[in-house]
Amino acid sequence: xxxxxxxxxxxxxxxxxxxxxxxxxxxxxxxxxxxxxxxxxxxxxxxxxxxxxxxxxxxxxxxxxxxxxxxxxxxxxxxxxxxxxxxxxxxxxxxxxxxxxxxxxxxxxxxxxxxxxxxxxxxxxxxxxxxxxxxxxxxxxxxxxxxxxxxxxxxxxxxxxxxxxxxxxxxxxxxxxxxxxxxxxxxxxxxxxxxxxxxxxxxxxxxxxxxxxxxxxxxxxxxxxxxxxxxxxxxxxxxxxxxxxxxxxxxxxxxxxxxxxxxxxxxxxxxxxxxxxxxxxxxxxxxxxxxxxxxxxxxxxxxxxxxxxxxxxxxxxxxxxxxxxxxxxxxxxxxxxxxxxxxxxxxxxxxxxxxxxxxxxxxx
Length: 364
Ligand code: ADP
Ligand code: MG
Description:
Blueprint: E1 4-11, E2 25-32, E3 37-41, H1 48-56, E4 63-68, E5 71-72, E6 83-86, H2 98-107, H3 113-126, H4 142-154, E7 161-165, H5 173-190, E8 194-198, H6 201-207, E9 210-215, E10 218-223, H7 225-230, H8 235-240, E11 247-250, E12 252-260, E13 263-271, E14 280-284, E15 289-292, E16 301-310, E17 315-321, E18 324-330, E19 340-345, E20 350-354, E21 357-359, E22 362-363
Parallel strand pairs: 3-8, 3-9, 6-7, 7-8
Antiparallel strand pairs: 1-2, 1-4, 4-5, 9-10, 11-14, 12-13, 13-22, 14-20, 15-19, 16-17, 16-19, 17-18, 20-21
């Protein structure tokens, strides 16, 4: 297993270019710890597959270097990188049995029958494939085929890293959860360096110790699931993580006073030296907003209640301050009548973004 380092990686599919817009990956610098479980999260087209293919060697980056344990492998072919990669759709041999498919990567490397058999059986059990071990892959369902693919990726214990590229896309939702926990278990047991690509935040947050969020060819944040929730460093992370995502609303800012459409919010920090032409936004998660009855004098922003969605354990309330819309998550709406309310901010969980980047102020 290896530590993987990306040094000033950039990639343009049309070859070297001076125009930044030609780059599917802008400038990336990142180290993946040996034995870490990472998720690479971002919307479709943001460059996740490109990045994985650069790590595995299917692509040579236009700029920068890839290091495995400080050895430069940028120009080393895939076969020599000792990486297992699992793709979105099954890559298996249809005419082989499940056993033969799983055994293939080991057999190919000259392992003996005595080494191969127990490993294949152990993995087949973990993936729930043991009853089909001697069935030809072509007779199996799409789910089972993808499990074989996963198994083929996991069978070798001496790989530098295992890369998963949205591997559960074709898997039935119920099985997804089960397989994800299996992968987590395998990670704990064998300590592989794992990079798991997904556009699904639940998948990313349950699988990984650390999540790398990508947006338009750039890494916008690397952090624990908790950090992504509590302190999104970029407005995109705010929107993308959470359901509903963070409320991000333009505001004016003077020291510790923010105003939204002329209504003031007193912040817990004070912000100085903001460039005059900057785009300033206030960011607060729906969980950190609260509604009070409209008569609660002087406190909070006067809002219109637009819609209440009761989704069981809590309610999502959509409110409007003129054109500004906020989502509020509350368990109780007691004391609320009519369609107006006061919107209250938990100021210790209210962030300020300047040109989409989180800024830190001075504690008051
Ligand atoms: P993701 O995996 O996050 O969906 P990709 O890495 O596949 O994103 O794609 C990133 C960008 O690169 C997209 O704009 C995509 O259209 C472009 N792209 C991907 N593969 C190729 C290719 N083979 N040739 C040209 N452009 C590509
Ligand atoms: Mg992709």
